Amino acid sequence: MTDLVLLAAFASRPEAVVAQSLLRSEGVDAFMPDANILLAEIDPTFTTGWRILVTSDDLHRAAAILRDAQLAP
């Protein structure tokens, strides 16, 4: 099984959703594991931001997609 790795973390939910949507449109499975937690109530001590995880096999391709779209943090 391929491990999930951190691709990027965004300060705002809209940025993360756009990045996730772009990756998915390019065929990359992208996961936002904290989305439900953060929707309940944002804790000011929460420092990881809106994380996007991808498989280690897709990491370099996904990073290039975000870089080309100028969405890499």
In short:
The chain has 73 residues and is an alpha+beta fold. It has three helices and two strands; from the N terminus they run βααβα. It has a single domain (4-68), classed as Alpha-Beta Plaits (2-Layer Sandwich).
Describe what this molecule looks like in 3D:
- The protein has 73 residues and is of the alpha+beta class.
- The chain has helices at 13-25, 35-40, 59-68; strands at residues 4-10, 50-55.
- The protein has one domain (4-68): Alpha-Beta Plaits, CATH 3.30.70.
- The chain contains three helices and two strands.
- The protein is globular.
- The mean pLDDT is 84.
Keyword list:
two-stranded antiparallel ribbon, alpha+beta, Alpha-Beta Plaits, 73 residues, 40% helix
Topology:
Elements: E1 4-10, H1 13-25, H2 35-40, E2 50-55, H3 59-68
Antiparallel strand pairs: 1-2
- CATH class, named Alpha Beta
Report the mean per-residue pLDDT as an integer.
84
Count of strand segments: 2
Q: List SSEs in N-to-C order.
A: EHHEH
**Roughly what percent helix?**
25-40%
Widest sheet: strand ordering? 1-2
How big a fraction of the residues is strand?
A: 15-25%
Radius of gyration: 12 Å
- Tell me about the biggest sheet? 2 strands, antiparallel
Tell the overall outline.
globular
Low-confidence stretches: none
CATH architecture: 2-Layer Sandwich
